[in-house]
Amino acid sequence: MTAPRLSIHEKILDAAVEQFAADGFEGTNMDVIALHARVAKPTIYNHFKDKAALYLASIEYMLSRNRATIASPSFARLPAEGGLLKVALELTWLFGRDDDMLMFCKMCIAGNDRFQTATDTFLRNGPWRGTDEIASLLRVWHERGELQIERPSFAARQLSELCKTDIFDARLFGGPAHATEEECRFTAEQAVKTFLARYGVD
Fold it and tell me: CA 58, 67, 155: angle at the middle one, nearest 5?
């Protein structure tokens, strides 16, 4: 099966995510984005008001792609333990190995008053909305009697934090560029074990 063709709008966003993640907001050049997207520079401004608008849209676009894999509705068809492991593996890969997410996270943390909107966009479309979608999966497993969870949103945030253990903070603050695949899997497996020890049904 061939991958669906990207629209011009998506091509611009793909190129913008790559450039903003590599060069930051100030260092990103709209001419370079146009070159990588294979569009004329005026075409970008037909889709986005200015560089700041493209930056915000890039954050939303990147995070929406991540959410689609982290909390896929298809996971709900799995038993709770298997579904949780799928979620945890996606999260640990994101925290341990995804360069775009890491750089956007760093830029938002370092943002100033001018880009408070970017930080808000990152939080709203990333951690907050992402854990809401994980919480939806937890509710399904709770209703099937496979988990006992009174506050799914809180539990979803707990799972997310467990999946950062040993692989995210070091990257965020200038440590190793990537966790290994083995480290990501180990962290995911341990996160699920810990989560089930708290919320699993005997």
Answer: 130
Q: How many domains does the chain have?
A: 1
Containing structural domain, residue 93: 8-199
Q: Could you tell me which of 157, 80, 169 has the C-alpha nearest to residue 123?
A: 157
pLDDT digits 0-9 by tens, 51-61 = 888 888 887 88
**Calpha distance 23→7 (Å, rounded):** 24
CATH number (domain holding residue 79): 1.10.357.10
Amino acid at 17: V
Q: For residue 148, which of 81, 196, 188, 192 has the smallest C-alpha distance?
A: 196
In a domain, 1, yes or no: no
Q: Is 200 helix (H, G, I), strand (E, B) or coil?
A: strand
Residue type, 168: F
- Centre a 10 Å sphere on the Cβ of residue 31 and count the other Cβ atoms it contains: 9
Q: Are 106 and 172 spatial neighbours (Cβ–Cβ below 8 Å)?
A: yes
Q: What is the pLDDT of residue 37?
A: 92
The pTM score is 0.73
Work out the mean pLDDT of the chain and round it to a whole number.
85
From residue 195, give the alpha-carbon distance in Å to each of 9, 78, 163.
40, 17, 10
pLDDT digit string, tens, across residues 102-135: 777 766 665 545 566 666 666 665 566 778 889 9
**Residue 173 resides in a domain:** yes
DSSP assignment, residue 146? S
